[in-house]
Design a protein that fits this description.
mainly alpha, two-stranded antiparallel sheet, two-stranded antiparallel ribbon, 50% helix
Length: 158
């Protein structure tokens, strides 16, 4: 009796090759280059982003945090994990396989847009602004005085 064994590589060689390469990371938010720029308020955009995320004192008054990034991550944690797993599968087993950079870039564009939409949603995820603040700003968007902050949100594959 003759037994024939056929071995099909379903991504193992590609996986081993990818494991030898430096790991790619997806960074989303106000990154270094944009964060270092000056906001019209005179502060850096990175400082404004951190203040909005964590809250801050303006004189003697506490300005409550308006988490534009960490809350979005918490709300989407399981979905993000599933999406990145699906991307990993396409990188390893896709026909043709997708590059890590391309897969992460696609996700980065989507995540950037979702974060920007979260910021622009009014009343959205935060308490409404006080009438005095709305009068001073000329609108009711909590995290937007100018478009500088929202336009500083980027993604980068490193």
């Amino acid at each position: 009796m003759t037994v024939t064994v056929t071995v099909k590589d379903r991504g193992a060689k590609r996986a081993r090759a990818l494991l030898k390469q430096p790991r790619k990371e997806l960074w989303v938010g106000v990154l270094e280059k944009e964060g270092a720029k000056t906001h019209p308020s005179g502060e850096t955009i990175g400082t404004i982003a951190w203040w909005m995320e964590k809250g801050f004192y303006a004189g003697d008054a506490w300005v409550a945090p308006r988490s534009w990034l960490f809350d979005w991550l918490d709300e989407n944690e399981k979905k993000i994990a599933r999406q990145l797993w699906a991307d990993t599968y396409r990188v390893l087993f896709g026909e043709p396989p997708e590059s890590e950079t391309k897969a992460l870039s696609k996700r980065g564009a989507v995540y950037k847009r979702q974060i920007q939409q979260r910021i622009a949603a009014v009343p959205g995820n935060w308490a409404e602004l006080k009438p005095d603040t709305i009068r001073k700003k000329g609108h009711a968007y909590p995290l937007i005085d100018t478009t500088t902050f929202i336009n500083a949100i980027r993604y980068e594959v490193r």
